[in-house]
Amino acid sequence: MIFVSCAIIENSNGQVLATRRSEAMSLPMKWEFAGGKVEHGETYDETILRKIKEELGIETKVSKQLKVVISHYPNFSITLIPFICRYVNGEILLHEHHEFTWLTANKLLSLDWAAADIPVVHQYLSSLQI
Ligand SMILES: Nc1nc2c([nH]c(=O)n2[C@H]2C[C@H](O)[C@@H](COP(=O)(O)OP(=O)(O)OP(=O)(O)O)O2)c(=O)[nH]1
C-alpha cells in the first residue's frame, strides 16, 4: 500500500488544476491531481505543500481535507489523501508532468483520470453541492 497526498487546487476564476502524467511515469498519460508519496515523518499536508512546490513551483494553501480513498491497481494499492487547496501565487513550471489544464468543475469528468482519482473527483463535486 502506498500513501499519496494529492491536491485539488482551485484558482480565483472558479477553476481546478489537473495535471497529466508523462509517458515515462507509471500510469502514463493519465490525468491526476498534483501530489506524491508521503515520506516518513511527514504529515499529509506537509507532503502536499512539498510536492506542489517540487512539481509545479507554485505556492498554495490547504483549505480542506477530503476523505481518504483506497483503490487497487493491478500491481499496487493506494491510499489517496485529497486536499482542496487555494492557489496563492507563482507561475506553473512543470518539472515532471506532460501538461496541465485549469478547468471548471463541471468539465472534470471529461478527462481520462488515473482510476484512483475518479472517486476523488466525485467526492469533490458532491462537496460543491452542499
Ligand atoms: N501524485 C498523484 N499520484 C497519483 C494520483 N492518483 C494515483 O493513482 N496516483 C498514483 C500514481 C503513482 O503510482 C503514485 C504516486 O507516485 P509518484 O511517483 O507520483 O509520487 P512521488 O513523486 O512522491 O514518487 P517518487 O517519484 O519520489 O518515487 O500514485 C494523484 O492524483 N496524484
UniProtKB/TrEMBL annotation:
Presence of the UniProt keyword Phosphoprotein in the record: no
Origin: domain of life: Bacteria
InterPro entries membership: MutT-like, Nudix_hydrolase, NUDIX_hydrolase-like_dom_sf, NUDIX_hydrolase_dom
GO molecular function: 8-oxo-7,8-dihydrodeoxyguanosine triphosphate pyrophosphatase activity; 8-oxo-7,8-dihydroguanosine triphosphate pyrophosphatase activity; 8-oxo-dGDP phosphatase activity; 8-oxo-GDP phosphatase activity; metal ion binding
Reaction(s) the record says it catalyses: 8-oxo-dGTP + H2O = 8-oxo-dGMP + diphosphate + H(+); 8-oxo-GTP + H2O = 8-oxo-GMP + diphosphate + H(+)
Cofactor(s) required, per the database record: Mg(2+)
Pfam families hit by this protein: NUDIX
Signal sequence region: none
Any GO BP: DNA replication
Keyword Hydrolase in record: yes
Nudix hydrolase domain mapped to chain residues: 1-125
Keywords assigned: DNA damage, DNA repair, DNA replication, Hydrolase, Magnesium, Metal-binding, Mutator protein
EC number: 3.6.1.55
Family of the protein in this entry: Belongs to the Nudix hydrolase family.
Protein name: 8-oxo-dGTP diphosphatase
Organism field: Pedobacter duraquae
